[in-house]
Specification:
single chain; mainly beta; 20-stranded antiparallel β-barrel; 59% strand; Sugar-binding protein
Length: 314
C-alpha cells in the first residue's frame, strides 16, 4: 500500500513538470514553484493539451498525461494552494477533481484534500484526505490518509521512525500493519537500499541506489525476482532520464536541456504484443519571465500535440 501513497504524493511533480531526477524520498510533497520549474512570482498556471486537429486531449508525458487540462494556483509564498484537474466531456472541458492544500505557520504542508465531482455527473466526494505531522526537526513523522471510493472507505496510517536518519516506515491499513520499510545508508549517509516487508514477513519491493557524488544516477527496483531499472545521466548542460521495464526494454527516455525542459522523448508502446519505441521532439515558446507558454510535440516532423499554458503573475 506504500506504493499507492507514494504515487499520490509525487504525481503532482510528474505531471506538471516531469522530474528529470531519481526520487529518493517517495513521500516528498511537491508544492513549491521550484518543484514545477516555474520562474517568477506565479499566481496561476493553466495547461491545456490539444491534438493535431485542435481537440483537447491527453498525451504520454508532461503535465497533461492524465488530464486534458490542469490548473495550479499558488500563494505569494510560492506554495501551491489548489490544483484543478479537467477532462473532456463530449467536446467540452469539465472539472473532474480538485485538490486543496493547507500549510502551517512554518510553511509545511499539513493537509491535502482531493475532491471528485466528475463534471457534476457524480455526487461530490472527498476521495482522499491526507493529514501530515512533523517532528521537532521538521521531518515528517506521520501521514494519515482516508480514501473514499463510491462504495467503501479505508484509512491508511504511515509512521516514520528516525535515528540520525529515517530508518523505518510502517504502513497500517485500518489499524492493522500492512508493511514495513527498512532503509539502509552508506558511510556518508546516502540511502542505498530500501526493502519492503509485508505483514506476513514476505519480502516485497526492494530498491537499490547508486550515486555520482550527491546525485542518484541508478535505481534498481526488484520484486518477485523481476527487475526494473532507472538511469539518470548528467552531461554538461544536458540530462537524460531512462526507465527500463522488467524485460530490460526501454520504457521511457527523456532528454532535458539546462533549463530543465524536455527536448526529446522516447515512449514505449506495444504493437502486436511487441515493445516499440515512439520518438518525440519538443519545441517551446517562452514568455518574458522565462516560463514556456507553448510546446509543440512532434513525431517524424509532424506535430502530434500542442500544449498551451496561460500564466498569471502577482
Amino acid at each position: 500500500m506504500k506504493k499507492i501513497l507514494s504515487i499520490t504524493l509525487i504525481l503532482i511533480g510528474l505531471q506538471i513538470g516531469f522530474s528529470q531526477e531519481i526520487i529518493i524520498n517517495d513521500y516528498q510533497a511537491f508544492v513549491q514553484l521550484s518543484d514545477f520549474h516555474l520562474k517568477g512570482n506565479v499566481e496561476k498556471v493553466t495547461s491545456t493539451a490539444y491534438d493535431a486537429n485542435g481537440n483537447t486531449t491527453t498525451l504520454p508525458f508532461l503535465e497533461n498525461e492524465f488530464y486534458n487540462q490542469v490548473s495550479l494556483i499558488f500563494n505569494q509564498k510560492g506554495n501551491i494552494t489548489k490544483r484543478t484537474n479537467s477532462l473532456d466531456y463530449k467536446g467540452k472541458i469539465g472539472i473532474y477533481s480538485y485538490i486543496d492544500y493547507l500549510y502551517n505557520s512554518t510553511n509545511r504542508l499539513i493537509e491535502q484534500k482531493t475532491t471528485v465531482i466528475n463534471n457534476g455527473e457524480d455526487p461530490l466526494r472527498v476521495a482522499s484526505l491526507k493529514d501530515f505531522k512533523y517532528n521537532t526537526n521538521g521531518n515528517i513523522s506521520s501521514l494519515n490518509e482516508t480514501i473514499k471510493s463510491k462504495t467503501s472507505t479505508s484509512i491508511y496510517q504511515t509512521d516514520f521512525s528516525y535515528s540520525n536518519k529515517l530508518n523505518e516506515i510502517t504502513t497500517k491499513i485500518d489499524n492493522a500493519i500492512s508493511s514495513k520499510n527498512k532503509l539502509t545508508y552508506n558511510k556518508i549517509g546516502k540511502l542505498i537500499k530500501e526493502e519492503t516487508v509485508s505483514f506476513d514477513g514476505r519480502k516485497g519491493l526492494t530498491k537499490y541506489y547508486i550515486y555520482d557524488q550527491n546525485t542518484p544516477i541508478y535505481l534498481e527496483e526488484v520484486v518477485d525476482n523481476r527487475k526494473q531499472i532507472t538511469f539518470y545521466d548528467l552531461e554538461s548542460g544536458i540530462s537524460k532520464f531512462q526507465k527500463f521495464d522488467h524485460n530490460q526494454n526501454l520504457k521511457l527516455e527523456l532528454v532535458f536541456n539546462n533549463q530543465k525542459n524536455i527536448t526529446s522523448a522516447k515512449v514505449q508502446t506495444f504493437q502486436n504484443g511487441k515493445s516499440v519505441l515512439k520518438t518525440y521532439d519538443l519545441n517551446y515558446q517562452f514568455d518574458a519571465v522565462g516560463n514556456w507558454t507553448k510546446c509543440e510535440v512532434s513525431n517524424n516532423g509532424n506535430v502530434n500535440y500542442v500544449i498551451k499554458r496561460t500564466i498569471m503573475y502577482y
